[in-house]
Specification:
This is Methylthioribose-1-phosphate isomerase. The chain has twelve helices and 18 strands. It has 369 residues and is α/β, with parallel strands linked by helices. It folds into two domains: 2-135, Up-down Bundle (Four Helix Bundle (Hemerythrin (Met), subunit A)); 145-367, Rossmann fold. The longest helix has 41 residues, at 117-157. The structure holds 5-S-methyl-1-O-phosphono-5-thio-D-ribulose.
Amino acid sequence: MNVDGKQMRPIWFDNESKTVRVIDQRRLPHELIVQDLTTNDQVIHAIKEMYVRGAPLIGATGALGVYVILVQKGNQGADDAWLKRECARLRDARPTATNLAWGVDRVMEKALNASEYGARVAAALKEALGVVEEEAVNCRKIGEFGLSIIREIAEKKNGEPVNILTHCNAGWLACIEYGTATAPMYTAFDAGIDIHVWVDETRPLNQGSRLTAWELGKHGIRHTVITDNAGGHLMQHGMVDLVIVGTDRTTRAGDVANKIGTYLKALAARDNNVPFYVALPSSTFDWTITDGVKDIPIEERDPDEIKFVQGFCDGKISSVLVPPESSPAANHAFDVTPARLVSGFITERGICGAGEEQIMALFPDKKAD
Ligand code: MRU
């Protein structure tokens, strides 16, 4: 996407140096720092520490990570058992987004099919770059399909702005281009529809106030950062027309894991008759499970992410302690919104209702393992 006149993606392969590069999202919006990933340990660290984050981007990083594994130690990558072990370590870097295992496994399989080392590296790179481009196209299509939902609301509002609420960052920074939840916003804005976005700050790491607000601002989209708890109040007062969020893993029955706090937004939306849509590429469906609350692993992160708040002060990024140092904190990173609270899914194949039958009608080729 366009950042101050320069086309940027959160991950890319630099052809000249044959290096995988990422934006270090921990530093945004205050510093735009690019990091090279040249070993599997670095790729795993970048995923765990959230230089890269967001389900489709984690998947793309996992895919390119298999290439990194293959080239980091010369032709050791010709050893099947070693390659599988390294890929297993990479697959486990974060537990909730299903895209990570999907991206790693897809590229690893292609690599294993080629036994000669050079062919293996070439096959892995080709497949990984394919994943990256496919996800960009998927997000573009999500934007095109999602536009119809925003347009319909805009027509009913007769020229009044459409107020959309979103949680966390499901923008291009979390994907490759366009984003998932933000793709319909970008498409609607580019089509001349007047939109305004309520941006949940998304504690503790503030993906909303740091990343979504930055993205929307760079695109010229009107937005307002709100506390994570403000959505219900705004909905009660008719100030939200539509909620669109992304997801890290969605079951074949339509249960949605997304950033902690999403479930409460869905409850408030249902109570106030506000449509609640989830935008996702097919790589985020976990076709093997139906019950999200029971079967989706929820990441628990370092409690210090809650206790210390990071911000920009006196020209540098620093963090400060908020609660008493001795108070324990619990950092559940995601929650599950049951399918019954979801109005529909916006996917690269179109829009469908949030039930197993509707989902499988759109994806008849996807079978449970
Ligand atoms: O912990 P994060 O920042 O990786 O969480 C990201 C989210 O929860 C996003 O909403 C989700 O991955 C969808 S991204 C298109």
